[in-house]
Amino acid sequence: MKKTFRIGGVHPHDNKISAEAAIEIFPAIETAYVSMAQHLGAPATPVVAVGDKVKVGQVIAEPAGFISGFVHSPVSGTVKSVAPRADIAGNLVPHVAITVEGDEWLEGIDTSDTVVKEIPYTPEEIIDKVKKAGVVGLGGASFPTHVKLAPPKDKKAECLILNGTECEPYLTSDDRIMRERPQEILIGGAIMMKALGVTRGYVGIEENKPAAIASMTAAAKDFPQIEVVTLKKRYPQGGEKQLIDAVIRRQVPSGGLPIETGAVVQNVGTSLAVYEAVQKNKPLIDNVITVTGSCLPVQHNYKVRIGTPMSKILEVAGGLPEKAAKVISGGPMMGRAIANLDAATVKANGAILVLTEAETRRRPESPCIRCSKCASACPMGLEPWLLNKLSRAGGRHAELEQERVYDCIECGCCSFTCPAGIPLLDMIRMSKAEVMKIMRSRPKK
Amino acid sequence: MNKFIVSPSPHTHSPESTQSIMRDVLIALTPAMLVSILASGWSVLALICVSVVACVLLEFLIQKYWLKVPVTVTDLSAAVTGCLLALNLPPNAPWWIAVIGAIVAIGVAKMTFGGLGQNIFNPALVGRVFLLVSFPVIMTSWDDAGSMFGVVDAFSGATPLGAVKEGLKNGATLSQLTADNLTFSQQFFFNAGGSAGELSAVALLLGFIYLLCRRVIKATIPVTILLTVFVISGIFWLANPERFTNPVFNIFTGGLLLGSIFMATDYVTSPMTTKGQIIFGIGIGLITVFVRYFGSYPEGVSFAILIMNCTVPLLNKYCKPRRFGEVKK
Amino acid sequence: MTGTILFTIVTLVALGLLFAVVLYFVAQKFKVEEDPRIATVESILPGANCGGCGQAGCHAFAENVVKAPGMDGFFCPVGGNPVMTKIAEALGRAVEEKAPMVAVMRCNGAIANRARTNEYDGYASCKVMASLYAGDTGCKFGCLGKGDCEAACKFDAIHVNPVTGIAEVNEDKCTACGACVKACPKGILELRAKGFKNRRVFVSCINKDKGAVTRKACSVGCIGCGKCAKTCPFGAITVENNVAYIDFTKCKMCRKCVEVCPTHAIHEVNFPPKPKIEPKPNEENV
User: Whole-number mean pLDDT of chain B?
Assistant: First the structure.
């Protein structure tokens, strides 16, 4: 029987309509707007000034703290400005704007297609290279990868799980790279296993991607330590905790870190970025972005330089149709609606999804009929209906904490499944933020 | 450029809605309704229509003119209540009985608690029990209205459960009583006598399978109730087969199937977690068996469900779902 | 028959007496001694339990004010000075008069002044909306109009106007309890001195963006040009982060700033109309 996680989950229609679109190289842009906040943690500090000439792959910002990251120039040209610019939510974030002139790469970056399999580096060297290349988790949370590759001393990693589940509907960028570059992904996995000092690796892929499973399984013949695991199609299988549960049957304790199960999860896209960083000296300057939507005439998977405005991508992809009502960065379950289309892509952007009004308009809220579908769907075993009730009552933070609102992974299963159209996640997310704030303000024991 | 919509995730929704769920329940009730129409004629159809119209109209009037809140009859929940109420009445009950039942069900049991989702007790059952205690004669006279199209043999008189109870009271033994009672196939496919919805176990089971396939309900509650009834009545029956009816008879007669499939599984008045649902089901099963064996009423499903409805808030409070990370190794 | 009735009456009376005695002794046993002044103070308080004073309600306020040595740090914003004077009298203490305050709405970005650039389709709460993104206009600072302030107000004194899409304070009802100020995720509302004859001058904008950005987003936003600060004879106006702020403790209500403001972001309220100058188009009682 195919594996899957043990609690909750929903089955949204997968809509992988862009799965057959091979990865295309996105045409050169005029100006790249590189955000300094492309990773979880403190925004990076720019180290270039207006007028500086930069090459592709050159460091333009350095980390400002332990959980932070390097940012590299995705293009070659002249720094136009170092100033705040609106991100997809319309909030101002420091950006470095670079006017593109040609495509001159920094020396030492291997731009050839040759696959380099030998790993001549020590774990410390690998972690350093990954850090210097500005690699972050490409699954969505953009957690700096080098931090995850160096777990706390008292925690021992036992295995690495590569996340190729891509459980979000519509998204196909991971599917495409698994089909087109399986070897590189597995070498990236082997590199990370070496860095972590583990001998066991898994690639979790959902059954709705048979081509990716075939190509990864074929490539994995050369990697006896890495096993390709076919998983049932079920959302949110790609959640870190759910994936660990699905693959190695261990559950992260409440409030604990995933490493406590001995597993380290990395997205397949991250794995590819690690491969390029370590074997090719290529920093993370581009990523594969799915441009999809049932209303778009053509579906695309583009390899896009970071810092490309979303509006530019949509324009090249064929423009927005009249009936487009919502543009989302990411998938329909956890992606963020874009309020500002001129915002530039960041490292963790995996998709631009265009939905029509009929597909996305929320239905009016009606009374809770206590069907408990939300509780059955919650992959964390919470009771969204109760959390919603407590949130609306106001000031019930103690009870919310007791009901473990802080365990919510914001996967959206509850809101998705609610027949009454209650915005459960809106309420829970708000309460979670409040409760976490209260919990953090408490003195540590 | 058109104005885009911005909202928090998720950006998509399952096709299921309150209305679609209620519609599925109505569809699942159709076989049972057809059987009773076939068995007892147009009068049952009229009864169902009166009951549904009364429930929907009442909810509409109360919401629109009394509470002055948005009218939500289109969610079909009132229609489901109406249907269930009609199926809980004797097939030949007068139409005004259905109207009184609707007033109690919608007006008292549902709207006074705040409408859909707020009621503690299953509205249709409250309606039925109110009628049962207020109009005991009408509610327990099962005179057959005349079978329609001559499809089935008319079976007039008391319900099987009623006949047994009456017989036992008069000192008869079960073997004497069941001699002229039902065969197994009669129990399973059709047993005339009883409320409109109780006639055919197979019709109700068809509805059950439909609801399970559509994932409208989970099997937990009905299965626990039936298992409990089977086991408990089995113990009694083995102890004294002359005094206590056998388990199969208990499951297929009376309102047990109708109650456990359609009324005990009512979302609003049943517990939210599997653990709670199992306790709920066991409770209903136990009370049903004890009322049937030792109570003064021949049938106890309605009372059992209503009594267990009271425990739902407590069950919700103390039965928590299995949290992630709490798995026993 | 008579016997039955008699029996019933006697039993019930006996039971009643028995319970009364038991209850009396229980009440005596568990009696809580409370300073009688607490009850006095509580009776003077408005009893709205709004929490505007910072205490957990009127009873807590009374309890704590009686315990405290003086009146420092205690002020009932709802009852205002009259109530505080009464309390002070009851406790035999002196009280300092405080200037009455009122909640002031510092955004004039009505739909007509500030074009909507997208449509929000989530739960109607400013808090949820603000945590999601900057807002449905080009202005990141302005009123979101989802009514968290309205929900927080216990005095029915603030409402989101469906026509303008922004909140409006009803100054007659406002008690300056500060609930709306806490509820607003954008920090738009401010408690300001009610002013002589309710007259007030304030900057109705908190947009910290540069002038050009503000201008593009909203026709009545403060662009931080600083004209008002230069004009003010009393040094009451400061311009920081591209937005002007009038210190109401220094403002003498000369209204010179109102005239010079190029975007009419400075509002004057409850002043009699000036005979010579035509009223400003964007003035609105807030």
Answer: 84
Say if CB C109 and CB C120 are below 8 A apart: no
Q: Which DSSP string do the residues of A19-76 spell out, in sequence order?
A: TTS-EEEPPP-SEEEEES--SSSSPPEE---TT-EE-BT-EEEE-SSSS---EE-SS-
Model pLDDT for residues A313-354, shown as the tens digit of each residue:
999 998 889 889 999 999 999 999 999 999 999 998 889 999
Q: In C147-164, which positions are buried (b, 16+ CB within 10 angstroms) versus exposed (e)?
A: bbbbebbebebbebeeeb
d(CA C5, CA C12) in angstroms, rounded, equals 11
**pLDDT reading at C52 higher than 80:** no
Q: How far apart are CA B22 and CA B72, in angstroms?
A: 13
Burial label, A178 (beta-carbon count in 10 A; 0-12, 13-18, 19+): buried
A361 to chain C: which residues are within 8 Å by CB? 121
Residue in B3, B5, B8 nearest the CB of C128:
B8
- Domain locations along chain C: 36-91, 101-269
* pLDDT for the residue C275: 62
Alpha-carbon span B165 to B162, nearest angstrom: 5
Name chain A contacts of B73, Cβ cutoff 8 Å.
none
Q: How far is CA B298 from CA B32, B86, B162, B253, B302, in A?
A: 22, 20, 5, 11, 11
Lowest-pLDDT range of A43-52, A213-222, A425-434, C264-273:
C264-273
Selection from B89, B80, B82, B78 nearest residue B128 by Cα = B89
C132 to chain A, any CB pair closer than 8 A? The answer is yes
Measure the CA–CA gap between B298 and B165, rounded to whole angstroms.
6
**pLDDT, tens only, C87-142:** 888 888 877 777 788 999 999 988 889 988 899 998 999 999 999 998 888 888 99
Q: List all chains that touch chain C, counting a touch as 3 or more CB pairs closer than 8 Å.
A: A, B
CATH code, A1-25+108-357:
3.40.50.11540
ipTM of the complex: 0.87
Across the interface, do B3 and C116 touch by the CB < 8 Å criterion? yes
Judged by CB atoms closer than 8 Å, whether chains meet at C122 and B7 is answered as: yes
In sequence order, what are the residues at sequence separation of 6 or more whose Cβ sits closer than 8 angstroms to the Cβ of residue A154?
none
Q: What's the CA gap between A38 and C134, in Å, rounded?
A: 18
Q: What is the pLDDT of residue B160?
A: 67
CA distance A228 to B200: 52
B contacts of C135 (beta carbons < 8 Å): none
CB within 8 Å: C122 and A92: no
The CATH code that applies to domain C36-91 is: 1.10.15
Contacts of C171 (CB under 8 A, 6+ apart): C102, C157, C194, C198
In this prediction, residues B294-320 reach a mean pLDDT of 90
Provide the whole-model pTM.
Answer: 0.87
For the ranges A418-422, B41-45, B185-189, the maximum mean pLDDT occurs at A418-422
pLDDT at site C88: 85
User: What pLDDT is stored for residue B189 in this prediction?
Assistant: 61
Which chain C residue lies closest to B4 (C-alpha atoms)? C118
From chain A, pick out residues whose CB is under 8 angstroms from the CB of B5.
Answer: 325-326, 337, 357, 360-361
Q: Do B6 and C128 touch (CB under 8 A)?
A: no
Q: Read out DSSP for A243-266?
A: HHHHHH---PPTT--GGGGTEEEE
Percent of chain A with pLDDT over 70: 99
Residue ranges per domain, chain A? 1-25+108-357, 373-441
Q: What CATH number was assigned to the domain covering residues C101-269?
A: 3.30.70.20
The answer to whether the CB atoms of C118 and A91 lie below 8 A apart is: no
- C133/B4 touch (CB, cutoff 8 Å), yes or no: no
The secondary structure of residue B75, as a DSSP letter, is G
Say yes or no for a CB contact (<8 Å) between A423 and C140: no
The alpha-carbon gap from A280 to the nearest alpha carbon of chain C, in Å, equals 38
